[in-house]
């Protein structure tokens, strides 16, 4: 299919506008294969939400997500196991992407940046008991940067308790920009308090992977910068293995810091 407009898709709803979503489970697989000229925002439960009145409690994705084709939009593409963005008033609690919620993204072309998250791209306000158990596989060709995370794209100065990732990540792709991978976050630079958070998933960057700029890969956080923020980590751990066989920094003189 050739989609020329914006595509917001969720197993339960495309946009949970100003609501409390409680005791929600998606058991239906999501599979797309097409050419996307507009912005693409896809998730197992809730496609997209950017208002400040959403609360999530006891929400689970229990089915796989597959996204194939071409993303031609200059707006970033987002794929989340549970939701794309939560701009809500928490605290949010008991949110899961189960082992049945594996995510496969294989785009033959992606013009803008792409984020693939076990739970969500953006997650506002405090949260408890949030876990991704689904594997994430990303293949294809990406002109921009690629961000892969078990929980959320970036920390944002909230309290997180008992968050974790057990899913395994595989990257087998050509990436023009930066690759950033983390079990909790891709980027840790906005502060926060983290208690009993963990990663046990293994990350594999294949020998076929080529990265134009840097690669930032961490068991918990891909890139960590505490210069402008305050962090507190209590009883957190990583036991996942990282295998990097790709090539980074091939389009500039920058050498990847992995």
Total E-strand runs: 31
Cα gyration radius (Å): 17 Å
Strand content: over 45%
End-to-end separation:
38 Å
Give the integer mean of the pLDDT values.
88
| Biggest β-sheet strands, sense, barrel | 10 strands, parallel
Structural class: mainly beta
Describe this protein's structure:
This protein is an all-beta fold. It contains no helices and 31 strands. Strands 1, 4, 7, 11, 15, 19, 24, 25, 30 and 31 form a ten-stranded parallel β-sheet that branches. The termini are far apart. The model is unreliable at 252-258 (pLDDT under 50).
Short overview:
The chain is mostly beta strands.
Helix and strand topology:
Elements: E1 2-3, E2 7-10, E3 20-26, E4 30-36, E5 40-43, E6 55-61, E7 65-71, E8 77-80, E9 85-86, E10 92-97, E11 103-110, E12 114-117, E13 122-123, E14 127-132, E15 136-142, E16 146-149, E17 152-154, E18 159-165, E19 169-175, E20 179-182, E21 185-188, E22 192-195, E23 198-199, E24 203-205, E25 210-211, E26 215-218, E27 221-224, E28 231-234, E29 237-238, E30 242-244, E31 247-248
Parallel strand pairs: 1-4, 2-5, 3-6, 4-7, 5-8, 6-10, 7-11, 8-12, 9-13, 10-14, 11-15, 12-16, 14-18, 15-19, 16-20, 17-21, 18-22, 18-23, 19-24, 19-25, 20-26, 21-27, 22-28, 23-29, 24-30, 25-31
